[in-house]
Specification:
Blueprint (H helix, E strand, L loop, with lengths): L1 E3 L2 E3 L5 E9 L2 E9 L6 E8 L4 H19 L4 H8 L18 H19 L1 H5 L7
Helix pairs in contact: 2-3
Length: 133
């Protein structure tokens, strides 16, 4: 990875894991890209299935900030601590607990990724040995 203006520039080709998470405005698809040699997470992307407009724009802005935070040395554990538990007037039940907001949904998806990585390892996730995070 190259450094430019003090930030680590990510490679053009990265490995990634996608997690589907129920959210108040539909299903959220969260993609976490990482360095396959070190296992260090570098970028987070998320999309809302049915919603566009303001929810999609807000989600993109949060993911951009998370990616920037990761590139300057932050961890996904710190991100989860900030996002999980954020509430709103739109709450939905899911098999992973009540999802209270878009931020909470993103935090829950990242936590599921981290737990699967700890239990199974990235290789098992990438090769399809596990199908549920």
């Amino acid at each position: 990875m190259k450094k430019e203006d003090g930030l680590t520039k990510t490679a053009e080709v990265l490995s990634a894991i996608r997690i589907r998470q129920k959210a108040p405005t539909g299903h959220m698809h969260v993609t976490i890209a990482f360095n396959p040699k070190t296992g260090r997470e570098l970028e987070v992307f998320a999309q809302i299935g049915k919603a566009g407009g303001v929810p999609a724009g807000n989600l993109e802005s949060v993911c951009r900030m998370i990616s920037l935070f990761l590139r300057i040395g932050g961890s996904l554990d710190q991100v989860v601590d900030q996002l999980e538990g954020i509430g709103s007037n739109l709450q939905v039940p899911s098999k992973h607990g009540t999802v209270m907001s878009m931020g909470d949904a993103l935090g829950k998806a990242i936590r599921r990724y981290l737990e699967a990585k700890q239990v199974h390892g990235l290789e098992a996730m990438l090769t399809g040995e596990i199908v549920e995070a």
